[in-house]
Amino acid sequence: MSSIESQPFNLALVGTPNSGKTSLFNALTGSRQKVANYPGVTVERKAGVFTTPGGRTVSILDLPGTYSLRGRSPDEEITRDVVLGRRSGEVVPDLVLCVADTTNLRLTFRLMLELKATGRPLMLVLNMYDIAMRRGVTVDLEKLSERLGIPVVTSIAVRKGGTVDLLKRTDEFAAQIGTAPVTSGWRPLTTAELRALQREADQIITDCVSLPARPHTLTAKVDSVVLHPVAGLAILFLILFVMFQAVFTWAQPLMELISGGFEALGDFVRATLPEGLLQSFLQNGVISGVGSVIVFLPQIIIIFLFILLLEDFGYMARAAFLMDRIMGGAGLHGRAFIPLLSSFACAIPGIMSTRVIDNRRDRLTTILIAPLMTCSARIPVYTLIISAFIPAKQVFGWINLQGLVMFGLYTAGITSALAVSALIKFFMWRDYEPAPFMLELPDYKLPRLKSVAIGIYIRAKMFLQRAGTTIFSMMVLIWFLASFPRPPAGATGPAIDYSLASIIGHAIEPVLAPLGFNWQIAVALIPGMAAREVAVAALGTVYAIEGGKEAAEQIGQVLTTKWSLATALSLLAWFVFAPQCASTLAVIKRETGSWRWMGVTFIYMFALAYVASLITYNVAVAFGAG
Amino acid sequence: MTSNLHHNGHQPILLGNARRGYRGVVQAIDSQRVASALQPVELESRLIELGFVEGAKVEVLHEGIIGRDPIAVRVDNITIAVRRREAMAVVLM
Ligand SMILES: Nc1nc2c(ncn2[C@@H]2O[C@H](COP(=O)(O)OP(=O)(O)OP(=O)(O)O)[C@@H](O)[C@H]2O)c(=O)[nH]1
Ligand SMILES: [Mg+2]
């Protein structure tokens, strides 16, 4: 065949949720898109390119999973529109790969029959063939292909060489046909047609597939504990509790190592460079500022490790099941649980994944409260303050008090999110019935070391990149503001008192003074609007410039001498609520399609933060912590 | 699909009322009188898309803690979590 094709061959991956489409996409293109063991991971279209063994350039689309082409939620509409060629600016796929989980064919076969009826060229990919064989599922491939009138291939997306068959058949297919017909006939099926298709699908399965009699017994066994009404909830809370304890205790040695490294670096800079602006910039701006954020990498890694393991194991959908009614009491959709739990990592993917929620109001409520979940960017802020002000003693013999406070802050985030949701429901949408919760609970899978490792690597890289870009540039700004203008000759006070930072800080201070914030905090909060960790870095820089040599070493120790406990607690309360993340606000704007909801989020979070800090500060002062 | 609800002596039971451990076969989907936020046709379509079609074997595997809701139901060889409110549309025998 001619290998110089001007037009690439266009593939689209379509299938029921959790059938392994993204795994296939990653295997074929070498990308690292997010894969996890629950339905509704992919919520966007993702494009990639690869070359077949036959030398053909193929462009491939990964799409959100769907049970039908009806497009009930925003993610499913994307899939429908791509398959039907309704998306403007999008090429119509030359071949649709219908990806099936071979252990679970019923629903995919129904979807496949619906796809077939659109007239789009189709190939059936029996994925997860390894699991199917292990369980004793056998498929008569030839008979199936003949019966369906389309090519059928098997694949193991997560194994090396698991897509050989698929590639070969794609080459053959591409060589045969010209371009696909552009017209496609599709209209929503009536319930009678749906039933008829399901019957046909079931009949095909009976004829071509032999299934083992027993269901997956491991899943059944685990579920009998994990989904037990009482034990299940206890386990869920235990997991969350251990996660936050671990963030504190496991990370400690590594963090000390990193901060020791930065200290040594700071000493080195001070020793080698002559005193002056360059030394100050490197030592105070870069090392004290950016370094104070990078120290938190181990904690970020631990929290992602937990979330990734839970996702890959298949626990997320179970957690959603356990929490459904509890969240429903607060006016939330059961499907809101997964987006909210991913917001523990970062609110941005959390808000994106609300696309699986079909009902617009439910989706909006979830988006509005997602930023209240304690994202990993708050960890540096919380940890810094907690380790400076809360003693690291054991309570009840085994619980680390610092970890307990951390857990308390997470709980505060969750509780306030539920409360806000309940209020939204009460004031805005009282008249309305709860949307249904229907979710497939996938079989458990052992997390694969490689994919967990890659997941962590990607997150760590993102964190460091942010430290190198956003945080670094903010640090340069802060350093500049805190260093200029230089004090007049013969000035006596600390140089920083003459700087722009001090002028700005003092200008805002009156507004924040009732919360117990001093001018240094006030300046740190402004660049902290870009991202929460920046506030930590900014404090690091401001205090380093102010305090000179000693202060540059350990920002935490400096804080204990400069702040009262009441101020520290008040700042913690501030960070539970304050909308200090520009990217989150931008995503809210994009996902809701309006400035209005972004504005609403911004204002309500600020109001909450102010009130919470005001109360915290005054209560703490009343208790003598002022 | 409301016809044929009472045949061959079996008392039909709604999946929404079934307790943990109940096994049965789907006899019909009747979404007309269900107090769901979804339109009856939409609810029926979704249930069918999750495998609740006439003749499918179901078993109630797990119940939630508040009001025994939601339920996890085995439908042939997959497990679906669904609220009792919506499960009221599934008529079993
Ligand atoms: N053993 C095995 N596991 C697989 C295979 N393909 C995918 N998986 C696993 O199945 C789960 C789902 O994979 P994804 O690729 O996220 O599925 P998806 O179809 O993209 O899911 P959605 O985006 O939610 O529609 C993950 O835990 C994968 O590791 C396979 O061939 N064999
Ligand atoms: Mg996917």
From TrEMBL, chain A:
Gene Ontology annotations for the cellular component aspect, listed alphabetically: plasma membrane
GO molecular function: ferrous iron transmembrane transporter activity; GTP binding
Keyword Acyltransferase among record annotations: no
Keywords of this entry: Membrane, Transmembrane, Transmembrane helix
Domain FeoB-type G span(s) in chain numbering: 8-176
Transmembrane segments: 226-248, 286-310, 330-352, 364-392, 404-428, 463-482, 563-588, 600-625
Full protein name: Ferrous iron transport protein B
Species of the source: Rhodopseudomonas palustris
TrEMBL record, chain B:
InterPro entries, sorted: Fe-transptr_FeoA-like, FeoA, FeoA_core_dom, Transcriptional_repressor_C
Superkingdom to which the source organism belongs: Bacteria
Domain Ferrous iron transporter FeoA-like: 13-93
GO MF terms held by the record: transition metal ion binding
SMART domains assigned to the protein according to its UniProt record, in alphabetical order: FeoA
Keywords from the UniProt entry: Iron
Protein name in UniProt: Ferrous iron transport protein A
